[in-house]
Structures are given as structure tokens and as C-alpha cells.
Specification:
One of its GO terms (molecular function) is magnesium ion binding. The protein is α/β, with parallel strands linked by helices and about 180 residues long. It is built from four helices and nine strands, in the order E-H-E-H-E-E-E-H-E-E-E-E-H. The protein is globular and about 50 Å long. Bound molecules: 1-O-pyrophosphono-5-O-phosphono-alpha-D-ribofuranose, manganese (II) ion and magnesium ion (MG).
Length: about 180
Amino acid sequence: MNNDIEKTLYSAEEIKAAAHRLGMQLTEDYRDKRPILISVLKGAILWTVDVMKEMDIMAEVDFIDVSSYHGGLASTGEIQLIHDLSADVAGRNVIIMEDIIDTGRTLKFLIDLLNERHAKDIKVCTLLDKPEGRVVEAKADYVGFQLPKEFVVGYGLDYKEFYRNLPYVGVLKPEVYENDN
Ligand code: PRP
Ligand code: MN
Ligand code: MG
């Protein structure tokens, strides 16, 4: 698996430092607010876990599974809700946990859904923000790294459902997906 990676963009150590920095910031901003973290499956699994461990406040966590890439290289533009939340978000301070904001479509879908359900306040904490990829307006409040225009895998991010278990974020060797299409 590691030999499919051309280069590392963010090492495990750099990601850990980002989780620490944002966890401290969230601790300060959400003291006494009892927020609910909404982890967006599957990509945000590792990021959610690492940031929440750095938050020294009372916080809930819940999961929603949405998919638009269906494992591939480009957003299909169509968001599917695969598994819904179990919590009621009405009146709650919500923090959406994402691995990456690219076209912004997934985030827009989630924000619209949470607004319909009368969340009190919605903020977004993402490991990676790729502003150049935007197709719809979407903004993250807490950002680990600004990502250049690259297709990346690892630390939750997949190509055809694999590479999520890499402990770092990296760029795939072109031959890995060229051979595949
Ligand atoms: C990826 C990623 C984000 C979303 C970002 O999820 O984890 O949730 O796409 O892209 P966007 O800004 O263009 O909408 P994906 O649909 O691949 O599902 P996954 O998390 O299960 O891999
Ligand atoms: Mn995702
Ligand atoms: Mg994916």
C-alpha cells in the first residue's frame, strides 16, 4: 500500500499537531456549550477521533454517512444519504467534522439538512480545505491545512475505498489510477 504513494503531503506528526491546535481552539470556543460533533463517514473517521481527544469539554459525537465520490476521483455532484444521525440536532451547537472540503457540495447538503432540522449553530472543522475545487459556496471555520489542487489519499481519504488506513495524507502515483480506468 505504501509503495503506491508518490509523496507525503502531511505527515502523521503534522496532522497530530493540527488536531492538537484545533482541539485547543474548540475547547476555548465551546466551553459550557456542550456541542455535538457530527462526523461525516467515512472520510472523517480518523480526524474526528484525533480532534475529539484534544477537546477538554463536554461534547457528544454522532455520525452521518453521505457519499458523492462513490470511491472515484471526481465528485458525482449527487449526494446520497446512506446513514442518518441518531441524535436530534434541534437547538444544538453542531460542529461538522470533515476530512476535506472540495467542491463544497457535501458540506452544503449537510448544512441545509441541519438547518432544516433547526440546529442552533453550525460550524465546520476540516482537516483539509481545497478552495480551488469549489463549485458551490462553502466555508470551513476550523481548518487543518489548505490543500493545493491534488487528489490525495490517506488518513481517512480513499481511492476506491482503499488507503483510508494510511496514517498520513499523500498523493497516489499516477499509474495506480491510470491502470484502473
Ligand atoms: C469525500 C470527502 C468529503 C467530500 C468532499 O467523501 O470525505 O466528505 O467527499 O467533497 P466535496 O466538497 O466535493 O463534496 P466521499 O463522498 O468520497 O465519501 P467517503 O467519505 O465515504 O469517502
Ligand atoms: Mn466524506
Ligand atoms: Mg471518498
